[in-house]
Structures are given as C-alpha cells and as structure tokens.
Design a protein that fits this description.
Enzyme class: transferase
Main location: membrane
CATH class of the largest domain: Alpha Beta
Subcellular location: Membrane
CATH architecture of the largest domain: 2-Layer Sandwich
Radius of gyration: 53 Å
Protein name: histidine kinase
Strand order of the largest sheet: 3-2-1-6-5-4
CATH superfamily of the largest domain: PAS domain
Keywords: Kinase, Membrane, Phosphoprotein, Transferase, Transmembrane, Transmembrane helix, Two-component regulatory system
Helix content: 40-55%
Length: 496
C-alpha cells in the first residue's frame, strides 16, 4: 500500500495493520471454510457408507431367509427388500433397493424393488414400491462395481450406491441424504464471514488508530518541545519516555544531537568573543597611534615610530585574520591540502635554519641532526607552518641557556614522526587538556619562569593540530613538566 501524501504516520500504520489483518482473516477464513466443508463432507460420506453397508448386510440376510410362500424368483427379491426396509428406518436418510434384471448395450437395467417413501430419495428412485425402472439420471449415477459418492443436481442429494452380489442375483443398495441442511450451514458461515470480517476490520482499525495515537503521543510531545528550542534556549532537552523502546532511544539520540549543537553554538560564541577580543587590541592601537599622529604636527622620527607601530599591529591583524580564515575553512570541511612529494628532513631543516637566528639571539641551543631521508607526500606550506609553530612555541617558552631539539624520522612501517622537545618552563597539568582549543593561552609570568608574557592569539596549536588531522595524522603533547615539553607530529604513510 503506497503511502499517500499528507497522511499521518498514525493513519499509514493503521491502514497497513488493517490491510495485513484483512489478508490474514481472508486466508484463515477461506482455509477454515474449506476445511469445514471437507470434514463435513467426509463425515457425511462415512455415515452414508456405513448405512449402506448395514442395509446391504440386512438384505443378504433377508434373501437367505425368504419364506417358502415367497420363494419364487419373482417374489423373493421384493419380499427381501421390503423386509430390509422395515428393519431400517431413518429420519434423514433415504434408502432404495434395486435389482439388476436384464442387460442392454449400456449395462444392466436396474428395477426398483423398494424405497423408503418417507425420505427424499423417492425424488430419484421412484414414488412407490414396485417393479419400476429407475430414472435415467439415477442409473447413470449409480455404479455397480464399487461405492460411488455422487451429487445429483439440482436438488443436491448425496447418494451412496453399493452393489450386493447374492445367489439370487445382483442388487444395488442406494442411500441418500439431502444437502439442504449443510448448504444452509455453509450459507450462514459465509454470511457470518461477510459480515464479521468487515466488522472485525473496522474494530481493528479503530483500535489500531487508538494504539497508534497512544504509541506516537510521545513523538508529538517531542515535536512540540523541539519546536520551542531555539538558539536562545539550547539547554532544553526533549522528554525521554521510560519505555526503553525505539522512542526513548530516539529521544536520547536527539538530545545527544542537541548537546552537540549546543557545544557548537557555545564554541562559536566563544570563538566570536575571543576573535573580537584579539582583533580589538591591534585595532585600538592602530586607531590610537593614527589619531595621536594626526592630532598635531610631529617630527619625521615620531611619524616613523607611529607608522612602525601601526605596521606591526597591521601585520598582527593580518596574521590573526589568516588564522581565522584557515579555521573557517576547517569548520566548513573544505579540503585545503595540496599534497606534493617532498623530503621531510629537508623541510624541517629549512624551518630550523629560518628560525635559528631567533634562537641564538635568546641564547638557546637549537639542535637538529637528520639521520636519514624521510620521503613523504604532503602539503609543503602547511607542514612548514606546523613545524614553525612548534619551534616558535619551544623558543618562546624556553629561558636563555636552554635547548630545543628537533627530530624527523621515518616510522617502522610507513609515514613519519617529527618530534620537538625543549627544556622550557613546561605547561601546567591543569592547562594541558585545553592547549589545542582556539584562543586558549597559558600565561607564563616572570614570577615563575623569568619570561615575560608571550604574545599570541592562541590559534597556533589548534591550526597545527588541524593540519595534522587533514593529513590523516595527529599532533600530541607527549610530555610537559618542569623539565620541558615534548610535542610529536605523527603522519601516516600516505595522504588520504
């Protein structure tokens, strides 16, 4: 049954249920009716056959004990037939006895010897006892060689004929029973089915609608609650039925979805707030310096100093905007990776050379000794960004006299590992789970490390972690304590 547009689930479920029940009732009703007819017919035939056997046995006894007064061949059969019928009277069965007297081309001709005139058998076997020839239809219906079960239309009588062979010749015992009572029974059964099945289907449909409504009532409650959930009240959840069934699992799944949506909205809110905060400071500096420079005439050196400050903050703004753009591409699931064949140890070496001057200016030892070639296929610019970020953080948070070590080596099977370790101040344990969150920064004060607070937007590690994930790998903080930190970039054998 195709689902019609606009029909509710309750209606469709009820119609499907009713249709299935209707087919089941039709099959069961038809099978019951057929079995009832077969059993009734078999019982009726067995009853008629037993009656014919009893009458045949009585006829044989009667023929064997004919009195001398009726011993003539013309009188003995009729006397025996009458005597047999006197001993067998039935309220609902007709009995007739025939004698095969002569033969023609079609077989023996049956002459009616006696008939129970109180039964309906007289309609077929003659109206009065005597030497009468049975009707042609009856002769054709009666078999002389075996028991025959026939229906003589249009009166619908069930007839059993049984040949009886004696020393006085061949006889046929025929018993009949009207099918009128059985036809009435079957008619009532059919009438009951024609009336009862539709009533049962209507009741089932009404009950199905009620059950479907009760079963889907929690869905309506969930729908009503879901319609009221907006961005301002994402903390609300759908009611969970206590039935522990599909609806309760659906509610929990939808609530889990709301949890993720709420988390996404909260991250978006924090992201917007943090981005606004990060952008506000350089913008404020640019506005302040420019207004100060324009407020009065200044010397060339003063203008140059103001422009340097504005230029530095503009570069910082450009860096933050670039990072935000990368994160937006990540959130939009855009593929920003352009893989090319490269040697990872050369890439890391270039990064070490580029940042080596900063390390030396801080009095740090920067170590990198490539041991073997590390071929890899990845995005050159993106991987450089990851390595430069790790090196920049290591140099930034390592006091003078410390050491930063970089390693690049192939993995046992395929892929590569880049490890950056330092002897810096480390990351407090309570901050470590959140270092890959956007805009999250760990403040290191001079009281603890002798370092001034390092500037940064808190986007470097989140972007580096995303680049690693985009390559099918991962960026992990392996260890961080008072002796320093170790970050490990793991890359797979090939870029997915």
């Amino acid at each position: 049954m195709p689902a019609s547009r606009g029909w509710s689930i309750r209606t469709r479920l009820t119609l499907w249920y009713t249709a299935a029940l209707g087919v089941l009732l039709l099959i069961m009703g038809s099978a019951t009716y057929a079995v009832l007819k077969r059993v009734t017919r078999a019982d009726s035939d067995a009853y008629l056959t037993d009656t014919a056997d009893a009458v045949a046995a009585s006829l044989q006894l009667a023929l064997a004990g004919v009195p001398p007064a009726f011993a003539q061949d013309s009188l003995a059969p009729r006397w025996a037939a009458d005597r047999t019928l006197e001993n067998h009277r039935f309220r609902d069965i007709g009995v007739a006895i025939f004698q095969a007297r002569t033969s023609n081309a079609d077989g023996p001709v049956l002459h009616l010897l006696a008939v129970d005139t109180t039964s309906s058998a007289t309609r077929y076997f003659g109206g009065a006892a005597g030497w009468q020839i049975a009707s042609t239809s009856a002769v054709r219906a009666l078999a002389l060689m075996d028991t025959d079960l026939v229906t003589l239309d249009p009166h619908r009588e069930r007839v059993v004929s049984l040949p009886v062979s004696t020393r006085r010749g061949l006889y046929v015992v025929a018993v009949s029973q009207s099918l009128a009572a059985r036809d009435v029974l079957f008619a009532r059964v059919r009438e009951t089915m024609w009336i009862g099945v539709p009533i049962a289907l209507l009741l089932a449909m009404a009950g199905g609608l009620g059950l479907a409504a009760a079963s889907l009532r929690p869905v309506d409650a969930m729908r009503a609650q879901a319609e009221q959930i907006t961005a301002s009240n994402l903390h609300e959840r759908l009611p969970v039925p206590s039935t522990e069934d599909e609806l309760s699992r659906l509610s929990r799944t939808f609530n889990a979805l709301l949890d993720r949506v709420e988390d996404a909205f909260e991250q978006r809110r924090r992201f917007t707030a943090d981005a606004s905060h990060e952008l506000r400071t350089p913008v404020a500096i640019v506005i302040g310096e420019s207004e100060l420079a324009l407020s009065s005439d200044r010397s060339a050196d003063q203008y140059r100093s103001a422009l340097r400050i504005i230029h530095g903050e503009a570069r910082r703004l450009a860096s933050i905007v670039g990072d935000l753009f990368l994160l937006a591409r990540r959130d939009g699931a855009e593929q920003a990776i352009a893989p090319v064949p490269l040697f990872l140890e050369e890439l890391v070496g270039d990064c070490v050379d580029a940042i080596g001057g900063i390390a030396r200016s801080k009095g740090l030892t920067l170590e990198f000794s490539p041991m073997s070639e590390v071929p890899y296929t990845g995005d050159d610019a993106m991987l450089r960004r990851v390595v430069m970020n790790l090196l920049d953080n290591a140099i930034k948070y390592t006091p003078a006299g410390g050491r930063v070590r970089v390693e690049a080596q192939p993995r046992p099977h395929e892929g590569a590992v880049v490890r950056v370790s330092d002897t810096g101040v480390g990351i407090p344990a309570e901050h470590q789970p959140r270092i890959f969150e956007r805009f999250y920064r760990v403040q290191h004060t001079t009281d603890r490390s002798g370092l001034a607070d390092a500037s940064g937007a808190g986007l470097g590690l989140p972007i580096a972690a995303w680049i690693a994930q985009a390559h099918g790998g991962s960026l992990q903080l392996v260890r961080s304590d008072d002796s320093g930190s170790v970050f490990e970039l793991t890359l797979p054998g090939r870029l997915a």
